[in-house]
């Protein structure tokens, strides 16, 4: 059955189909609609579950962990500051091997206060032991609600899963979504069974301590089983395709990469925009493609190296910045490529912070920068500079977003991180904190943005 649903509503339908026994809820924008719809389902009798309205996000995850420890399938949801408030409990849930599923509506973190979507909240917590997956659209959001339980509850995994959905871009945007029948969902996802629970007949140790002599064993087993999740994810997606008729591309999916020389790696809903730009540039002779990272934990290093082997340049477009370094996704991609012996030059593009638009012009400019990077490397090696032709083609319709028609070649051997910035001196219109005219809550710019800032941190 198809319905016109927001991403929040679609995910709530997926949770309903999964038949959780306990839902712990604390609302926070832009996640609120998920727990609202689930409360309505419980009230109407559509969903037979204990609905617990707790007093904070910390309590929401604590409640879910306690319920999971009794052997119940559990669900909770959060966003942004709420996820950060949960941080203490994240490691308890992961280390306790409780297969909770949590939806996180990706949203900017304060300060400045902002309710719109970027991915700094979840990416800041990659190392807290949870499987992390990112949806591209509302259909995938619903489907991931079901698949997340199948992965989390698999005996060789037994780890919590965080399903990330872009705030507002997905959570509050409506599109047609195919809702499976309950019979299909039950065929795909059987009732939850585990020995990792309170049991008076066969007691086990839960929430234990482990000193230096034994602690490393638990950490190794956690890491081992996180890696084992890669195989389980593939198996779950194959079974989902058999039951539901929808096939996903694994932990990392590609688009037109087979013969591509310039590849842009991205995460989440922006992949739809990147696909359109790839098609446009292909029509103009630019050999470009896209890789969408669906899972960031476990990180699909082997799959990524397969997709990016032999490419002339790789860019990473992300809605995140690790201040003082580079984008977190960029760090992970570079590490994987280095371990795989892939020496392709890479470049980082930061955009979408605080819900700012990532435009088609910016994406074209990103490909133009990658082409200029190839040209620079080719000239350094004395090879024909095919990159210059690609750069000209890619920059052909990006003139509104770039100061020059063709980006300057990028010197090799330097950190290549670009910030997508508004095309005016931000400090003039929106003073920095501490400057005359600054207020406690800075506004965000709605201007078209372009790639590049100079060494002084001002707009190029």
What structural keywords apply?
460 residues; alpha/beta; Rossmann fold; 2 domains; 7-stranded mixed sheet; 15 helices; 16 strands
What would your notes on this structure say?
This protein is an alpha/beta fold and 460 residues long. The protein folds into two domains: 2-244, Thiamin diphosphate (ThDP)-binding fold, Pyr/PP domains (Rossmann fold, 3-Layer(aba) Sandwich), CATH 3.40.50.970; 252-451, Rossmann fold (3-Layer(aba) Sandwich). It is 39% helix and 16% strand. The chain is built from 15 helices and 16 strands. It has helices at 7-18, 32-44, 57-68, 80-85, 87-95, 120-123, 138-152, 182-188, 212-244, 270-283, 301-308, 328-339, 360-380, 386-395, 426-429, and strands at residues 2-6, 22-25, 50-53, 74-78, 101-106, 131-134, 161-166, 174-178, 252-255, 262-266, 288-293, 295-297, 313-318, 346-350, 417-421, 450-451. Strand 13 (313-318), helix 12 and strand 14 form a beta-alpha-beta unit. Helix 1 (7-18) runs parallel beside helix 7 (138-152), helix 8 packs across helix 9 (212-244) and helix 11 (301-308) packs across helix 12. Belongs to the pyruvate:ferredoxin/flavodoxin oxidoreductase family.
């Amino acid at each position: 059955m198809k319905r016109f649903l927001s991403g929040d509503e679609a995910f709530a339908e997926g949770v309903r189909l999964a038949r959780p026994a306990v839902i712990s809820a604390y609302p926070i924008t832009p996640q609120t609609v998920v727990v609202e719809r689930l409360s309505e389902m419980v009230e109407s009798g559509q969903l037979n579950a204990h609905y617990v309205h707790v007093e904070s996000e910390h309590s929401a995850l604590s409640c879910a962990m306690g319920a999971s420890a009794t052997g119940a399938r559990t669900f909770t949801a959060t966003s942004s500051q709420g996820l950060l408030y949960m941080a203490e409990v994240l490691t308890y849930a992961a280390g306790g091997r409780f297969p909770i599923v949590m939806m996180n509506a990706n949203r900017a973190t304060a300060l400045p206060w902002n309710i719109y979507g970027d991915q700094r909240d979840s990416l800041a917590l990659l190392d807290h032991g949870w499987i992390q997956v990112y949806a591209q659209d509302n259909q995938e959001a619903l489907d991931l609600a079901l698949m997340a339980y199948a992965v989390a509850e698999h005996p060789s995994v037994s780890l919590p899963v965080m399903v990330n959905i872009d705030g507002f871009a997905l959570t509050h945007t409506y599109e047609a979504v195919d809702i499976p029948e309950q019979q299909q969902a039950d065929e795909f996802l059987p009732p939850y069974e585990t020995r990792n629970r309170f049991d008076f007949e066969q007691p086990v140790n839960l929430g234990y301590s482990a000193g230096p002599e034994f602690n490393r064993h638990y950490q190794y087993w956690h890491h081992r089983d996180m890696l084992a999740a890669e195989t389980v994810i593939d198996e779950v997606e194959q079974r989902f395709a058999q039951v539901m008729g929808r096939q996903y591309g694994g932990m990392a999916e590609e688009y037109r990469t087979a013969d591509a020389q310039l590849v842009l790696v991205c995460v989440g809903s922006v992949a739809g925009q990147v696909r359109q730009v790839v098609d446009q540039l292909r029509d103009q002779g630019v050999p470009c493609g896209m890789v969408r990272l669906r899972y960031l934990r476990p990180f699909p290093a082997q799959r990524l190296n397969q997709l990016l082997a032999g490419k002339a340049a790789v860019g990473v477009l992300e809605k995140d910045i690790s201040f003082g370094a580079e984008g977190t996704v960029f760090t992970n991609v570079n590490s994987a490529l280095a371990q795989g012996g892939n020496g392709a030059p890479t470049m980082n593009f930061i955009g979408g912070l605080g819900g700012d638009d990532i435009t088609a012009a910016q994406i074209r400019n990103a490909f133009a920068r990658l082409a200029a990077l190839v040209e620079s490397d080719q000239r350094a090696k004395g090879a024909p500079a095919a990159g210059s032709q690609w750069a000209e083609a890619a920059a052909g319709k990006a003139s509104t977003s770039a100061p020059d028609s063709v980006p300057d070649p990028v010197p090799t051997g330097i950190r290549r991180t670009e910030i997508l910035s508004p095309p005016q001196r931000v400090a003039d219109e929106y003073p920095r904190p501490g400057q005359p005219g600054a207020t406690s809550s800075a506004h965000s710019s709605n201007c078209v943005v372009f790639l590049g800032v100079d060494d002084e941190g001002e707009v190029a």
